[in-house]
Structure formats: structure tokens, C-alpha cells
Specification:
The chain has 339 residues and is an alpha/beta fold. Helix content is 42%, strand content 19%.
Length: 339
């Protein structure tokens, strides 16, 4: 028997307030392990966090360590760094500001790091970042996110977002029997994950004449914004058969909003990332679909590749970490990954 998640409205509102308050934290701590499910931050200014006596220095720019999934990528990097006693890793948190990320890269170059890892944010600034690194003859590796000028980068390590969107919507279509009203929650508009996951969603929907998109708006990968957006959609009184989000945080927000309104029983919810929070909702028979993105593998492989490039080794131009569909039929396999 599955245990249903039932929360009083006042508790959910309190949890939402606490969540928003948590997002304003700026303390400097090391990345958490995935199993802890804790959001973490590093300093905005590049700060050395491990192996300070190392012979090789690597700079790492993280977009936002308060983002749960990104904190898992950073944890994968930190875990690999512990196996490299001759390497110093400098982590910097851009706090969702592309101009801050650009400044961090400039500081890394000024410090004469041997290689740079970054999770791209703004496409234009990402191109500038790569150009600056190339001009300084410093290998630069992109992790998790892509952008158009990827051909000028040393290496990219991540997953194919188009595949994620396709896997996700194929399963939703199967569950709906090929018909129904779909609401799509986009992430940050223009980001690789938003563009390609949504593209994958729409390519699947186009195959089914009786499936149509009735809503599509952004909630910026954020749980609280996903909750607010879902509340707005529900208030419209339009019938929704499935809500499909570009990540798990937004779909969790959508589920909480639907639960507050008592409208969560007949809606299929689908996310991407396969986080432990999402899997808890799946185990409770709320979330029906998510797609596992191996954050730790992206982080560890990204840092490994960066260190190899710093040592003058030839590295692959692109390393793809596969996505994996998660449903209630195989949820326990993925829950075990977080233990």
C-alpha cells in the first residue's frame, strides 16, 4: 500500500515561506552529498575549498549552489577532488548572475589556474568566457549545460536534454492513452534544458492528434514559482490531464499547489532529474514520471576531464551521460542510488 502525502494548507504555506527564506542564504560552506538533500553555497568570490597545497589549481564556477540539482553536480566534483591530492580546486558561486560568473572566470585567469570548469548560464556571456579562456590558452570545460559556441570549448560533459523531454512525454502519452490536455512548465527561457526538453515534449505531442498543450509558462526551475504557476492554472478552471515540467523542483511545486486545492488525484505529474525529493513523491503515488539525470556523474567526470586537460592530455570533445526513465515500476532502483 502506498502512503499518500496529505498536508494541511497552513503547513504547506509555512513550508513555502521557509523555502523562500532558505533561497536567500549566502553562507559559505562546502557542497553537500546528494544523500543529504541539502542546498548549499560557496563564496561569490573564488574561494579555495580543498587541497590547498596542491600542485595544479582548477577553477570551478557554479551558477547557483542553492539550486538542489546543481549542488549535486558540485558534490560529484568534490568527491572526485578528494581522490586527487595534487590538485587544488577553487569553487565560486555566481548566485544566478551571469555577469558575476564572467567576473569569476576573469579572476581565475588572473590567478593563472591550469584549467577551468563552468556550468554555462547566459549564452552570450558563455561565449565571452570561452573566448577569454582560449585567449589565455587555458583549457575550459562546460558541464551540465550547453550553448551554441560549444565547438570552441575544450570539452562538454552533460546529458542530452532532447532525450529527457522525449522520454518524459512518451511515458505521459502512454499513461494518458494518447489523449488529454497538457500543461508545460518551462525552466529558464533560452537555457539548453528548457529549449530541448520542451522541444522533446512537443515532438511527442505532435504525434497524437488528441493531445494538446493548453498552458505553457516558465517557473524558472523553482519550486515556489512552480507552486504559484500551478495555482494560477487551476484558478482558470480549465481541465488539465497532465503537467509536465522541465525539472523536478517545478513539478513538486505543481503537486503541492494541486494538493492544496484538492485537485491532485486526477492529474499526471512528470518531472526531470530524479532527485530524492521527487522520488519520495513518486513513492507516495503522487509523481508518475521523472527522468534520472546523473548529477554526480556529470560533476565527477567534468572535474576528471578538466584535470586531464590541465595536465596536457587529449580529452574527448563531448562526453554524454545517459538519461534514464523513472516510473513507479523501477523507483526503488533510483531511491537506492541516493542512499
Amino acid at each position: 500500500m502506498r502512503v499518500l502525502l496529505k498536508f494541511p494548507v497552513i503547513f504547506l504555506l509555512f513550508a513555502l515561506i521557509m523555502l523562500i527564506s532558505g533561497c536567500t542564504s549566502s553562507s559559505s560552506v562546502t557542497p553537500a552529498s546528494p544523500a543529504s538533500n541539502a542546498s548549499t553555497t560557496t563564496a561569490t568570490t573564488p574561494t579555495t575549498t580543498n587541497n590547498t597545497s596542491g600542485k595544479i589549481t582548477i577553477g570551478v564556477s557554479i551558477p547557483n549552489m542553492n539550486d538542489r540539482f546543481i549542488s549535486y553536480v558540485a558534490s560529484g566534483m568534490q568527491a572526485y577532488a578528494k581522490t586527487q591530492p595534487d590538485v587544488t580546486v577553487i569553487y565560486a558561486d555566481a548566485k544566478n548572475d551571469p555577469s558575476t560568473q564572467l567576473q569569476q572566470i576573469k579572476e581565475f585567469i588572473a590567478q593563472d589556474v591550469k584549467a577551468i570548469t563552468f556550468l554555462p548560464m547566459d549564452p552570450t556571456i558563455s561565449k565571452t568566457i570561452v573566448d577569454l579562456a582560449n585567449q589565455a590558452n587555458i583549457p575550459i570545460i562546460a558541464v551540465n549545460r550547453t550553448f551554441k559556441e560549444l565547438t570552441t570549448i575544450t570539452s562538454y560533459i552533460g546529458s542530452d536534454s532532447l532525450t529527457a523531454g522525449t522520454l518524459q512525454m512518451n511515458e505521459v502519452a502512454r499513461l494518458l492513452g494518447g489523449k488529454g490536455n497538457i500543461a508545460i512548465m518551462d525552466g529558464d527561457m533560452g537555457s539548453d534544458a528548457q529549449v530541448n526538453r520542451t522541444k522533446g515534449n512537443k515532438e511527442v505531442i505532435a504525434k497524437y492528434p488528441n493531445m494538446k498543450i493548453i498552458f505553457e509558462e516558465t517557473a524558472n526551475y523553482d519550486r515556489a514559482k512552480g507552486m504559484a504557476l500551478m495555482a494560477k492554472w487551476l484558478a482558470s478552471k480549465q481541465h488539465i490531464d497532465a503537467v509536465v515540467a522541465n525539472n523536478d523542483e517545478m513539478i513538486i511545486g505543481a503537486m503541492l499547489a494541486a494538493q492544496v486545492n484538492g485537485q491532485d488525484q486526477n492529474i499526471i505529474f512528470a518531472g526531470v532529474d530524479g532527485t530524492m525529493d521527487a522520488l519520495n513523491f513518486m513513492k507516495a503515488d503522487k509523481l508518475k514520471v521523472t527522468v534520472f539525470q546523473n548529477a554526480a556523474a556529470q560533476g565527477s567526470k567534468g572535474l576528471q576531464t578538466t584535470i586531464e586537460a590541465a595536465n596536457g592530455k587529449k580529452v574527448a570533445k563531448e562526453i554524454i551521460i545517459p538519461y534514464e526513465l523513472i516510473t513507479q515500476a523501477n523507483e526503488e532502483k533510483y531511491i537506492a542510488k541516493w542512499k
